[in-house]
Amino acid sequence: MLLVQKKPGPCPLNSEAFRVILKQKEREFREDLDFIKYRLDCSEQEITRIHTVLYTSRYDWITAGEEIANVHAVIKSHINNLTSILSCLIKSSVLRNKFHVQWQNLYKQTKKLLKDINLLDDINNT
Prior knowledge:
mainly alpha
């Protein structure tokens, strides 16, 4: 009787399940990052609009303050979303390789918009 030992390797079923889960995660990340990008672009347009309003005769500091607060809240929520996505990217080298550059670009855009909205808030409060 000859005993042949198999090398332990990944079970094909587990590998297939892993690929399915990975594809699902990739799709979720892509959707999340695309949504954040869309919302940041909208926030950027809103910041431009508020900036224009601040220098017109129809300027209402209360309304502008509320609009600034709304945009600020949206931007802060996206910083939180990006931070939670980063923790997932750190755990998976496959996902990190696919999405890290896109994540970095969104994070930079978010930080720039946060700086812009804070500047508008300062202008509005003076």
